[in-house]
Amino acid sequence: MASDLEEKILLLLQNSPEGVILQSELWKILDSGSREVSRSLAKMAKRNLILREPYSDGGRKTFKVILLKKKPKIELDDILWCCCFTCHDLSKCGMGLPISPEMCPKLTISLRNEMIKMKKQEELKKISSQSGDGDAKEG
Ligand code: SF4
């Protein structure tokens, strides 16, 4: 289980543009001891959450801390299909309640339609990549 410091480091890396921060900057940002940060980073590296690469920052040796598994960002378009956002029963709906996602026909239809749409998109991608292969072989 990740410690508070590890959680903070992960959050910082997650929010950095490339998922990279210098170790020397982490101490300053987190206002923590260098040993504490180093220990946390070593543990995180063991769990393959990050990678540390030696780096020279204006002659000072430090490490580049690289996040290995960046969480995919969810775009609004990715979830707009869900009928729950416009549902009048949203405030009354929940697991174990009379109105629940498990028993909701609207959500079932919404999910099924989205799955059909995704399947069609995958098929189209497959077809276009196959026709691209064909072109490459012919040309
Ligand atoms: S699961 Fe069904 S009832 Fe519940 S909020 Fe979504 S659409 Fe509404």
Please give a structural write-up.
The protein has 139 residues and is an alpha+beta fold. It has 2 domains: 4-67, Arc Repressor Mutant, subunit A (Orthogonal Bundle); 76-138, no CATH class. The chain has 5 helices and 3 strands. The protein has helices spanning 4-15, 23-30, 34-46, 76-79, 105-138, and strands at 20-22, 50-57, 60-67. Strands 1-3-2 form a 3-stranded antiparallel β-sheet. The longest helix is centred in the last third of the chain and has 34 residues, at 105-138. It is elongated. The chain starts with a helix and ends with a helix. The relative contact order is 0.09. The mean pLDDT is 87. The structure holds iron/sulfur cluster. Iron/sulfur cluster binds at residues 83-84, 87, 89-90, 93, 99, 101, 104, 106-107.
Strand content: 5-15%
Secondary-structure element series: HEHHEEHH
Gyration radius, to the nearest Å?
Answer: 23 Å
**Bound small molecules, which ones?**
iron/sulfur cluster
- Uncertain runs are none
Tell me, rounded to a whole number, the average pLDDT. Answer: 87
What is the straight-line distance between the termini? 54 Å
- DSSP helical segment count: 5
The CATH H-level homologous superfamily of the largest domain: Winged helix-like DNA-binding domain superfamily/Winged helix DNA-binding domain
- Overall geometric form: elongated
**Which structural category do the helix and sheet elements fall into?**
alpha+beta
In CATH's first tier, which class of the largest domain applies?
Mainly Alpha
Counted up, domains total 2
